[in-house]
What we know:
Elements: H1 2-23, H2 29-41, E1 49-53, H3 55-58, H4 63-66, E2 72-76, H5 82-87, H6 89-92, E3 100-104, H7 107-112, H8 118-135, E4 140-144, H9 156-171, E5 176-179, H10 206-217
Parallel strand pairs: 1-2, 1-3, 3-4, 4-5
Helix pairs in contact: 1-2, 8-9
Amino acid sequence: MKTRTYFFLILLFLGFLQSQAQTTKNPFSADIRRFQQIDFAHPPKPNSILFYGSSSFRMWTDVQEYFPDFPIINRGFGGSKLTDLILFRDEIVFPYQPRQIVIYCGENDFADNDTLLPAAVTDRFIQLFGLIRKRLPDVQISYISMKPSPSRWHLAGKFAEANLGIEKFLEEQTNTAYIDIWDKMLNKRQMPDSALFLEDMLHMKPEGYQLWQKEIETHLLK
């Protein structure tokens, strides 16, 4: 056990060294350094479940309380796109040696570029998936569908199409799960349920996370 912990700390340190150059001019450099400081002060356990994604994870600060029977490492950083998850995979994914990775990302890809096609976002996810599987061939990879945010309802068609592309891709892979929260967050009129969202109509209230909990928990590995 001590040998495994020592090896894990070495991986964290190597990730820290590798990140210094590429995070210098990156808008998420402070987030990455904060994660590394947390890891060195309180090394997380290997074989945990990694939540990796954008602000819907970042703002889920009490996520461990929602899943008390599972060891969760929350590494969401607000505003991130799938391209950022690809960029920081060496710093945030591989050092943890997780048994499962739960991903939520994609909304910001479209919000950042209104000409971006759904197929491009699906391809970004497929690229991330391939890079992770190359290094961690046995890891379980779960994807939470993009949610129907009221403030981004004008992008709903693109969200839905990219969700479908990712779902179809995952159906052809092993050791995966597609966690569909889209329909659960709509009201009877098939519009986003505003009661689940904060005033910005983008981020969620506890009621939204409670809904997510029910959908996610059945897919987490014991």
